[in-house]
Amino acid sequence: MSTKQKVIIAVAITAVIGIALRIFLPVGTPLVSVRAEELFHIGGYTITNSLLLTWIVMALLIVLAVVGTSKLRSGNAEALKQPRGLQNALEYAVEMFYNTMQGVSPKFAGRFFVIVATIFFLVLPSNWFGLIPGVGSIGLCYSHSAEHAAAPNYVATAGISTDTAAPVLAAAAEGGKYTHNCPSGTAFHPFLRPGSADLNMTLALALISFAVTEFWGFRSLGFGYLGKFFNFRGGLIQAAVGIIELISEFARIVSFAFRLFGNIFAGEVVLLVMAFLFPTLLSLPFYGLELFVGLIQAFVFAMLTMAFIDMAAESHGDHGHEEHAH
Amino acid sequence: MTDEGVRLIAAALAIALSTLGPGIGIGMLVSGALQSIARNPETEGTIRTNMFVGIALTEGLAIFGLVISLLIGFNVI
Fold first, then answer.
1. Cα of A64 to nearest chain B Cα, Å
2. Which single residue of A31, A77, A211, A284 has CA 20 to 30 Å from A182?
3. Angle at A92 between CA A90 and CA A97, to 5 degrees
4. Where along chain A do its domains lie?
């Protein structure tokens, strides 16, 4: 039997199993909540599930960095020359990212690499954590508090998963004791939710990126930086262009925040809907797509921050000159 | 037609119509960038940076549509 035939048979079997599961097992309605769900309170602060996952990501990054550089910090001369294992992988990732940033902004890549790389290496695992089965599908039913009742759009119906957990498992959860169909008056809150699928996190990152850009603009050009936006000497057209620049400067915050949030949240919803539409196989190609989207969005966020920093530093006058020199 | 139904149609139209223009725009932008990279490969770094900035600005329009769509869909406005 050739490989091709084996593949066809495997696909046919999974398709039949999928159709059978879809028909014979009850399927709930998918749960989609735009806001991150609350889990518990610590001293007046609300801990949401996206915050919890972001902490996990942060802990993971810290552990990776500490373990990866342990040989370096112990003063091992050999580790400096010939990195191997985890240290090698980390160095490869950082160096590749640094070279890309060098291409974006040759002048300021070294100075702002810390901020840009932090954004990239925080957003990337945040995006990808949402794809792990169990994230967004395991949780508890929480009873409505007063503030929930005040928000009429809060979706109370709970589905089996907000992620593509292994399809068979998800379907088994439907029939078995792990069902997430919460009783009325309660809402399903998953324990984990990717940080990028929470608007608060992406807005915070966007504000950091915006603040760094403006800071660098003022730092390198002084108050002449404002001349970019309030340019009344060059006539009416120049003044209008300046105002448009000013508006688009602030629109960056919105577009930064919603680009990341929209892409990751929409990816979650697509995977969820596909898993409900057809429990096996269908969500597989979208899984690959979401891996790609997660990487691209993390990269775009970091790269745009770098590009905007680079743009903020060049004054209006020497723009043409600068281009000429390249 | 119920109030909720109109709201859903409005939300769908907001995002659907606002992605039309940026879709065409980003397509044209990337095609132009790829052509110039093919013609002049050593400028790839600069062109790619400017391409991404242009994409970000173009995509911003679609993102405004998404924001409006979410606001309508979740009863904010």
1. 30
2. A284
3. 100
4. 24-136+191-312
